[in-house]
From TrEMBL, chain A:
GO terms for biological process: macroautophagy; protein transport to vacuole involved in ubiquitin-dependent protein catabolic process via the multivesicular body sorting pathway. The keyword Protein transport applies. It comes from Capitella teleta (Polychaete worm). It is found in: Cytoplasm. This is Vacuolar protein-sorting-associated protein 25. The lineage of its organism: Eukaryota, Metazoa, Spiralia, Lophotrochozoa, Annelida.
Automatic annotation (TrEMBL), chain B:
Component of the endosomal sorting complex required for transport II (ESCRT-II), which is required for multivesicular body (MVB) formation and sorting of endosomal cargo proteins into MVBs. Its main location: cytoplasm. Gene3D superfamilies: 6.10.140.180, Winged helix-like DNA-binding domain superfamily/Winged helix DNA-binding domain. SUPFAM superfamilies: Winged helix' DNA-binding domain (SSF46785). It comes from Capitella teleta. Keywords: Cytoplasm, Endosome, Membrane, Protein transport, Transport. It comes from the Eukaryota. Component of the endosomal sorting complex required for transport II (ESCRT-II). Belongs to the SNF8 family. This is Vacuolar-sorting protein SNF8. It holds the Pfam family EAP30.
Amino acid sequence: MGNFEFPWQYNFPPFFTLQPNADTRRKQLDAWRSLVLDYHRHNKQYTLDIAEAQSSDLFFNKSINRKLSLESINTVLEELRKTENLEWKDKSKKQCMIMWRSPAEWAKLIYQWVTNNGMNNTVCTIYELQNGDDTKDEDFHGLDSWLLDKALKLLVSQHKAETISYDGSDGVKFF
Amino acid sequence: MHRRGAGIAAIKKKNLAQARYKDKGTELASEQLTQLSKQLDSFRSYLEDFASKHKGEIRKDADFRRQFQEMCAAIGVDPLASGKGFWSEMLGYGDFYYELGVQIIEVCMATNHRNGGLIDIEELRLRLIASTGRNRQDITTDDLLMAIKKLKVLGNGFTIIPTGRSQIIQSVPRELTLDHTAVLKAAEGKAFVTSEELQKELKWEKERSYRALDYMVKEGLAWVDDQSRPHQQYWFPGLFSDSMAAA
């Protein structure tokens, strides 16, 4: 995985100060929104911890010594929530899921893989899907359990899959 | 005292002479006219020769283009006055600037969301080269200024703001007063300015500096940096390039 390429704004010092002008702030928040998504997509990360966020290089550009305040980080996260790219894990809003791909998109990818490999009407364990050798080259390899669960539930509701428990390990049968 | 009277004969004679002079005058004028148009014809054919011989150089070589421009200016010809006619047909010379003009508009529109319609001419040049590929290595800022001046025929959309060291191109019609251009000049080179600098360097009252800066924030031209020390900085994305960041 190559180094993440930050957008030009990341080196523009006032990018780390929430702008007073409404139009400018709109552009700024849009840029932050894409940056957070791109950053997580690049690093294949799915969760964000508020306590760690401020020291992460995503929100803190050490080379120009500018960081986004906690309050501003929350404003950016709220933007992501509005566009359904974020879901809080807990009520106290300490940890959240960053969904750079929606559960529906994940569901589609997984089902495509199933069909392409003639796995219809067979059973996979959740572990195999996430960590198995067969999925090594797939984007959903290593997918966060919480997100995978959401995607599978969607497939179940579309009658494309059925979740089963067998011998204490969770599995899924695709149709 | 005896004076020769002005008899009928004398008047007739005078009239005759006047008529002859007039005829001669017309004759001379028409001779000059034919001469002149002959000269113009040969001038034109020389220029056509020159043009077709050096067509490639004019399009490719920025220095050659500039000298050609100067030559035309010296004899009072504006090769860009019209897109049609022999200049553009022979040289593709007008086309060169018209194409450039269109590309300038494209770059300004594409960067408008970032810079609010203000861009440093060097930045514009680099972006233009990047967007049009390797064949455009030799576009100079002179070429850009020329093309932008030609864009004026489209209305007052484009303004060139001289800033001492360089020029800033404004692509969104907007009222900028002398105070605002003074702020841009002060910010040039580092892309930011503080109220304190304006007070010190321009001998402005605090109130005047904030009035100018606040207007530019309101117009989306400037961004506020609350984390700068010791003073709050006002940044201009149109003057900012990535290389400035680490400083």
